[in-house]
Design goal:
By secondary structure, this protein is an alpha/beta fold. The protein has 13 helices and eleven strands. It has a five-stranded parallel beta sheet. Strands 3-4 form a two-stranded antiparallel sheet. Strand 7 and strand 8 form a beta hairpin. It is globular, with a radius of gyration of 25 Å. About 0% of the residues have low confidence.
Length: about 325
């Protein structure tokens, strides 16, 4: 495939529909997965699990976490592949769809466990009351509280099942100072209560889960896992964590990327890479890393995919695109 300027900046629409350009094929790591649910990142394919190459020592860390039923805390710079580890674990061990909790400074433990739409329930009750007044039989409609409760990613991961669920808690270092400590009790017990359901006279209530169209029956408002979930927490190393939290995790520091590791990663995604452009871009990428810049592996893949071969024949244009695609990410 040669470099083609599909967009020319004219804003002129072709009068002949037959002259509309056919856009290029998607890069192999960017094609969406039709089977992916709302928990999966947009544009992430499940075959990332087979193209990911674990760093030295990471396999032992994963197995230690699995044996001990402890969360795995991965620390490293942005773009080092930390969040892909759980996808490979889930694919290899048959743990199903990966649940994803992306942390921000506003994230709370309650949101990750469940959400109760009290206002929605009140609105539905008012509508039912109005409907009951106009119905000929005057029969009351049942108030189903389960329609207004949805489990979050952590709450769904703690549901009982024959296999553990896979959960990614992404960028835990972005959280409020108290969140890591708040996690401890839930992760140790493997269960939690939903007070709104515990107070309800009906003992068994069906609620929605974080899975696509998923539902589960909750008994007496209590959720208790039968298998501790496989949890990977990621951190960019921007803060320290309390000792009680750290001792309950298996910790692994992602090592610096080497030329050999990068070449292996590129080959896994793009196949044959024996060309000068690939080698040059890998060296440029490594130099940026050594200079302290934050750049991500998918930036390197994008640059190699777009610039190798005859994709961008003009040297000035090639350099301009390289600078565009390999811009630093700040502090990550």
């Amino acid at each position: 495939m040669s470099w083609t300027p599909y967009y020319k900046g004219t804003g002129v629409h072709p009068t002949d529909p037959a002259k509309l350009p056919k856009l290029p094929a998607l890069p192999p790591w960017r094609a969406p997965d039709p089977a992916a649910g709302p928990q999966e990142e947009a544009g992430r394919r499940t075959d990332l699990a087979t193209t990911y190459r674990p760093a030295s020592g990471l396999i032992d860390a994963v197995n230690a976490a699995l044996h001990l039923r402890r969360p795995l805390l991965l620390t490293g710079r942005a773009g080092s592949g930390k969040s892909t580890v759980i996808r490979q674990i889930a694919a290899e061990l048959g743990l199903g769809q990966v649940l994803h909790w992306h942390i921000t400074s506003r994230s709370t433990l309650a949101d990750a466990l469940y959400r109760y739409d009290a206002l929605g329930r009140i609105h539905a009750h008012n509508l039912r009351t109005l409907d009951d007044k106009v119905r000929p039989d005057g029969a009351d409609q049942e108030d189903d509280i389960g329609e207004f409760v949805q489990l979050g990613p952590l709450g769904t991961a703690l549901l009982p099942g024959t296999r553990p669920r896979a959960l990614l808690i992404d960028e835990i270092d972005k959280s409020d100072l108290d969140l890591p400590s708040d996690l401890l009790d839930v992760l140790e017990r493997g269960g939690f209560e939903i007070p709104e359901l515990a107070r309800h006279p009906k003992p068994d209530i069906v609620v929605r889960t974080a899975d696509t169209a998923g539902k589960h029956t909750i008994e007496h408002g209590w959720i208790q896992c039968s298998e501790f979930p496989a949890i990977v927490l990621t951190s960019n190393g921007e803060r320290d964590f309390p000792a009680p939290f750290l001792r309950r995790c298996v910790r692994f520091e992602m090592p610096p990327l080497s030329e050999e590791a990068l070449t292996d990663i590129v080959a896994a995604h793009l196949g044959d890479i024996e060309d000068n452009t690939t080698a040059t871009l890998v060296q440029t990428f490594l130099k940026k890393l050594s200079d302290g810049e934050y750049v991500a592996i998918d930036q390197l893949l994008s640059a190699i995919y777009l610039l190798r071969g005859d994709h961008a024949p003009d040297l000035d244009q090639r350099q301009s695109l390289e600078d565009l695609l390999l811009q630093g990410l700040g502090r990550g």
